[in-house]
Amino acid sequence: MILVWMIGILLVGGIACWLVAQRNTFVCRWIALIAVITAFLIPVGWYVQHQPVIVAGDNWLVHFQADWIPAFGISFHLAMDGLSFIMLLLTFLLGVLAVLCSWNEIREKTGFYFFNLLWTLAGIAGVFVAMDLFLFYFFWEVMLVPMYFLIAIWGDFNRRYAAYKFFIFTQTGGLLMLLSILALYFIHGQQSGGNYTFDYFALLNTTMVGATARWIMLGFLIAFVIKLPMVPLHNWLPDAHSEAPTAGSLILAGLLLKTGAYGIIRFVLPLFPQASFDVAWFAMLVGVVGIVYGALLAFAQTDLKRLIAYTSVSHMGFVLLGVFAFREIALQGVVMQLLTHGVSTGALFVLAGMLKERLHTRDINQMGGLWTAMPRMGGIAMVFVMASLGLPFLGSFIAEFLILMGAFPVSPVLTIIASGGLVLSALYSLRIVQKVFLGQAQTVGEPPRDLSAREWVIMASLTAAIIFLGLYPQPVLDMVRNVIGEMVVRR
Amino acid sequence: MDQLLAYIPAFPLLGFLILSLFGRNLPKQLIGVIGAGTVCIAALITIVVGIAFLQTTPEGGAFSQLLWSWFRVGNLSIDISLRVDALTLVFIFIITFVGALIHIYSAFFMWHDRDYARFFASMNLFVCAMLLLVMADNLVLMYLGWEGVGLCSYLLIGFWYEVPSNCRAANKAFLITRIGDTALLIGLFLLFQELGTLNIPGILQRAPDYFASGSSNIELITILLLVGGMGKSAQMPLQTWLPDAMAGPSPVSALIHAATMVTAGVYLIARMHVLFQLSPVTMAIVAIIGAITLLVAGCSALVQTDIKRILAYSTISQIGYMFLALGIGAWSAAIFHFFTHAFFKALLFLAAGVVIEALHHEHNIFMMGGLRKRMPVVFFTFLAGAAALSALPLVSAGFFSKDAILWYSWSAANGNSFLWLIALAGAFITALYSTRLMLVVFWGEMKTPIHEQPAQGMVIPLIVLAFFSVAAGFIEWPHNMVHLTLFSDHVQKVLPETVMKQGLPSEYLFQAIAAFMTFAGVYMGYMMYYGKPGVRWQQSPGLSATREFLFSGWKFDQLYQFLFVKPFVFITRINKSDVIDRMYNGIAQASLRLNSWFSISQNGSLRLYIVGVLAGILFIITLQLLL
Amino acid sequence: MVLLVATVLFTLGLIGVLTRKNVVFMLISVEIMLNAAGLAFVAAGSRWEQPDGQVMFLFILAMAAAEVSVGLALVLQIYHQHKTLDVENLKELKD
Amino acid sequence: MTYQQYLALLPFIILATAAIVVILLIAFRQSHTVIQVTGFMMMCGVVLAMWYVRDTLPREIPPLFVVDGFAALFTGLIIFSVLVVGLLSYIYFEEREENPKEYYILLFLATLGAAVLTISRHFISLFIGLELLSVSLYALIAYLRNRNNAVEAGVKYLVLAALSSAFLLFGMALIYMETGSMEFSAIARAIDAAGMSVLFVMGIGLIVVAIGFKLALVPFHLWAADVYQGAPAPVTAFIATVSKIGVFAVLVRFAEAIHLETYPLAVTIFTVIAIACMIVGNILALMQQNVKRLLAYSSIAHFGYLLVAFLSGEAGVGAAVFYLLAYSITLLSAFGIITLLSTQRRDADDLSGYRGLFWRSPLMAAIFTVALLSLAGIPLTAGFPAKFFILTAGVQQNMWLLAIVLVLTSVIGLYYYLRIISTLFAAPPLTPVKERTLHPFFYFATYASLVVLMCLLAWIGVYPGFIVENVREFLLIH
């Protein structure tokens, strides 16, 4: 039931924002903030209550099921396990920050903005807990539309193009996935003697012959790797990320990409163990290509947000590598990577947004020497740049270390190339610091002000999160151990 | 006693946290006290621990403390836990003790700098990271320290960030070491895959019965570790970053780029000595790399004009000696040289810092001169340092350590005459450039006026270090002279004894030759530079070409520029706007063209529409008649 | 046999629609086609000796009449607005 | 004819009387409003009657008609659409100088024709219904004769429609010639007995041409855009919904009767046509700047989708009905917005006129957005389950080619829907458009009904179960 509450609060809160904003935008902001915080507190509070359950390691912690379209065996089935729980925490954490960092950035149409923001979050949360494939697809789409509006209305100069690109890319994947879902639905129905259902747990024990399984699996996989994104299907990402408003980029990089990875872990591997194992080597290869390719492009960019966007292409390559290594260590690393990348890249985008607010440009050639004026921001930026190049005692290191460690026995060569990606990541990450904060101060006129209290809260919480994940990741690892373990034994 | 370990890195960390969070609001005095104080406390604790260790060697030969479990996944379990054995003890002593002196020095040296707090924050963080590096009881935690010191060196080299060249130097340092680090990381993966553990004691204890000596895996692992070490310790071919790293403040060069961080490679190899002993090929490679490095860097040091670059190159070459020693299996000799080198090289850098400060940030030695009378303290301390560097027999610590290496490079089982000759040549060159440095800087007439004398607080560390760079040698005498080998006895609790050849000529002979070479170097330097600094070099063109070649560090930078940097930048530039994007734009274009074609049919002409209908009919009818 | 005639008639009408530019003639040609269809119905009815064919023919006549009436009204309008009956001039509506 | 049969025909009789009543009212010089209200009442009457006779179904009225659940569904759909169209027509024509009264006669006659199509099981009734529909449509399209292009559209439609009905008739004649009957079931029996012949196949082909023309299927679609653009907005809505629903109904019935899906030939033809529709329709709409034309093209594509359901036979009918429902609601709300925005001089069909609508009148823009999203088949709107059910039907019959084409083309379609949406949300032009305050009551009535439609879309989108159940229930009545 709590899951329904979580999503419901966001949806209702969104509508409330829209309505209230006609009169008073200030109240509307607070409504949004409170809505997200409550949504955040629900799983946290639940965790505080039921801690023993998790430690005991029963995979499925919460279930909620209700009929929806019985004629087609579609039910409103939500469930949460460790993985979902982790993702939910990330979602709401970033959600709160997203609301905070759009506090002053959004001047007009505030109500509709927060409506979209909250609905996107609701959609994402739904994706992480939906256990009925139809429902999953439903949420999958629901999170797109508001996101489209966020980009298309509050975006930057080139927003419409970016918005189209984003929507069309993801939609293509989505529809292919829908086809696969249907195919799976009928195959299962025929096998189980007319028990037609979209329920995840029912579909789990569907057996398919090689070719069919591979095609159906491809349908899912394409949808997810477009979201991930995987080279060469990544082209929507740089545009969307660089054009979106700060909160938009934060959510795109921090959460939407994760839904892709989540989808692979939750659906592709368990539903098609054999088929996905057959494509594993290819997927790993592409992942490594992504790591290198993304890094090269990131190094070349001069638009700060675009640069960061390409870094996430590179980082998500690690996810692909890790997932298809089919090793517990690697998969645990992938989960860590989802978290840490969400936090670190999100933080970088927020920083980029703050810089844009102050300097009104995203071009790093027009920045430089900002450390003098903004030592605080500089320090924070240093932390997250180091995170993105995988410095130990920051969460990203644990993630990448585990992924590489896990993938190494499977394919040493690819892993070594991927490790080369670490050097490249150092290249582009240092370039950020050097171009933006070091060197001669370029800004004429009065120097930009340092972080305000609100911004300080945002960045401090992110920093705390990334350092905590780096020094004491055990809780997360424990949380997903069972899920991952099951995944590994399945194949 | 075990419980004390955590406090050694904890105090510098505390200092870092305080300074980085509130540093901007604190008075400078307080900052200085915190910055230097925390390290001094760490040093005191270290000494306490050290005494305890020397009195009663703990069981297992090490103190160890488990702080918390870092992460456990599957069969991989990594803890945050510290471990101090004889080898570590030497390192943490140097780190904290020399570090403390340098911090005290810098408290005065950096007084006028705007970012006083940032400086000490970074320095404290460095000390903390370096301590973690040497105290870690598993390789992942060590890697944490390893990267941490890299970060701090990056921050401190680029400390004066307004100057672009400094930032470039910082980047260069970070990137080149990063290459080594990555190799090291891969080494860890392979090691884990083979042994299933990354715990240092575990590895050392499992390796011998797991690996066959000289098996390809162990060779590969050790080579990867070696590359990591080469990166950090600026050995060939990854040495090019160190000279540029002199862009940082002098104390930084003293602490990071002379005494501690650059010797991390030495530590790594010594720490993993079991693995290296199992892989003779790698051992040979280590020795050869060390030999080449010490020669190459020494030659470059001969012709530098920037005082700090001279010292930097000499550092590289001294570390070359240590690698040579490691390569030939003279473990304790290598560590001993590290021990003495830390003192005298730190001393030299700090003294150089004083000189540079005194002369309005003048780096060029040929613009100095005649400081002997004006800055006596600095002169004598510098003299002590230089003497140790050029290993003047019996009166300098450098002699004892370097003489041991020279001796072993012939006499050790893996040693041979060739290595010995190179080492000897190195000794000669070292003496030569040390003399050149001394003479040009302190003799002759004065070219730049002195505008300030060093503060007392800066002199005291100099004197202390000077004392040690003379006296530190007396704890370890050559076997044939005095039977006093405290150091090697201590270190050999961890490291194996050096295996010797049979039927060697008397050791006195070697010592005599070594001493002679040293004096020859000094004399030649005296001949060339006394009074008439460097005139003879500028004249003959052939020599000046060689000089130019050596001056630019054997053109390694240019080579790498050409081989790696330029191609990389080229590739990234041409693909800035993502080639793959073209594909998708192409699809979009195609559908738009299709659209324009189709809409031709919608030209509003009724008759065309009728034709359309007719076409449809014909299509259907024909289809029907065909099927 | 009769069907053949009807077919020929139908084709003629079709050709007329295609070739003529004048709206009125087009309408006439369509009428021819309709009547051809009617003829076909009658033929079919006679083949099966049923009245339905002829019934259908009556319906066709009625419908044709209605159609023509509306058609001519439109033709008048066209003439008012365009002062011509050439369909080639009716091209305001297009992409 | 028995009482029961009359009873079964009651709704249609009421529908017919509606037209007559309007004529009488006009004879008595009644005002537009009165006529409007009466017409509204009559239509409600039809619905009530349908509900009333529901239990007596199914009922055969040989040889021409059969009133069964299927017919009831489609008639209900038609009447529902006409209700909305009528509502739109009122405010639309109040703005125009022309005398709008006769308009309603034609409207109701056309409706009657469509309704007759849904219950016809005989060529004659088919023909009558079709012609009733088209002849009234000629007049409706050209109703605002003084507005440029209306007449042109009328003529184009007339000539082509007449042509197509000629083909229809000839086809019928051929079939009759072959089978000796004009009753669907009888034809089917005759075919089963005698097997197919060239003439019969020809006949089917020619009939397909006529049907294809009415449904604006490729390659008989060329008229659609022009007529949509030329006709008054409500009439366009009518063409897009009512007439197509009626024709589709008879198509389905005919196909079911003669088991079209058993002829590989016919299946091939329809498959080709469907694919052509999806591709051509969506591509044509890509760069279209005129909203009415754009909707025309999108409707071509949508009937392509619908054919997928049609091709999957029995299983598809439910999906098709659902789709038509969602589709008509969507289109009606879209055209409602167009009507509301139309000014005296011209319909609001230029996309530039919609720039920044959201910031001028959010509610309208919201309705339009929802409608477009529903056309694009995005969740939370009725379009999504509709498209989903069609895909389900397609996949169930393993028509992978069609399914994949559907998916890819609807991605193309996405682009132009998004184009409109982003125009709605773009920064508004500096000159504010004057608001119309004429006839506030009806204006707001229409407004309210559009809001209701939007809610309907959302409701069906989120909870389609209810509709699905009822549709199934109805379809079982035959």
UniProtKB/TrEMBL annotation, chain A:
Highest taxon listed in the record's lineage: Bacteria
GO biological process: ATP synthesis coupled electron transport; electron transport coupled proton transport
Domain (NADH:quinone oxidoreductase/Mrp antiporter transmembrane) ranges: 130-422
Membrane topology: Multi-pass membrane protein
Swiss-Prot/TrEMBL keywords: Membrane, Transmembrane, Transmembrane helix
Membrane spanning stretches: 6-21, 28-48, 68-100, 112-131, 137-154, 166-188, 200-226, 247-269, 281-300, 307-326, 338-356, 377-404, 410-430, 451-472
GO cellular component, one term: membrane
Location within or outside the cell: Endomembrane system; Membrane
Annotated GO MF terms: NADH dehydrogenase (ubiquinone) activity; NADH dehydrogenase activity; ubiquinone binding
InterPro entries: NADH_Q_OxRdtase_chainM/4, NADH_UbQ_OxRdtase, ND/Mrp_TM
Principal subcellular localisation of the protein: membrane
Family statement drawn from the similarity comment of this UniProt entry: Belongs to the complex I subunit 4 family.
PANTHER family, sorted: NADH-UBIQUINONE OXIDOREDUCTASE CHAIN 4
Identification of the protein by name: NADH-quinone oxidoreductase subunit M
TrEMBL record, chain B:
Single Gene Ontology BP annotation: ATP synthesis coupled electron transport
Places the protein is found: Endomembrane system; Membrane
Organism listed in the record: Niastella caeni
Domain of life of the source: Bacteria
Annotated NADH-Ubiquinone oxidoreductase (complex I) chain 5 N-terminal domain residues: 70-120
Pfam families, per database record: Proton_antipo_M (PF00361), Proton_antipo_N (PF00662)
Domain (NADH:quinone oxidoreductase/Mrp antiporter transmembrane): residue spans on this chain: 136-430
Gene3D superfamilies linked: 1.20.5.2700
Name of the featured protein: NADH-quinone oxidoreductase subunit L
Keyword entries, A-Z: Membrane, Transmembrane, Transmembrane helix
TrEMBL record, chain D:
Enzyme class, spelled out: translocase
The protein's Enzyme Commission number: 7.1.1.-
NADH:quinone oxidoreductase/Mrp antiporter transmembrane domain residues: 120-413
Record keywords: Cell membrane, Membrane, NAD, Quinone, Translocase, Transmembrane, Transmembrane helix, Transport
Pfam families xrefs: Proton_antipo_M
Principal location class: membrane
Gene Ontology biological process terms in this record: ATP synthesis coupled electron transport
MF term (GO), any: quinone binding
Superkingdom, taxonomy of origin: Bacteria
Membrane-topology annotation of the record: Multi-pass membrane protein
Function, as annotated: NDH-1 shuttles electrons from NADH, via FMN and iron-sulfur (Fe-S) centers, to quinones in the respiratory chain. The immediate electron acceptor for the enzyme in this species is believed to be a menaquinone. Couples the redox reaction to proton translocation (for every two electrons transferred, four hydrogen ions are translocated across the cytoplasmic membrane), and thus conserves the redox energy in a proton gradient.
Record protein name field: NADH-quinone oxidoreductase subunit N
Name of the gene: nuoN
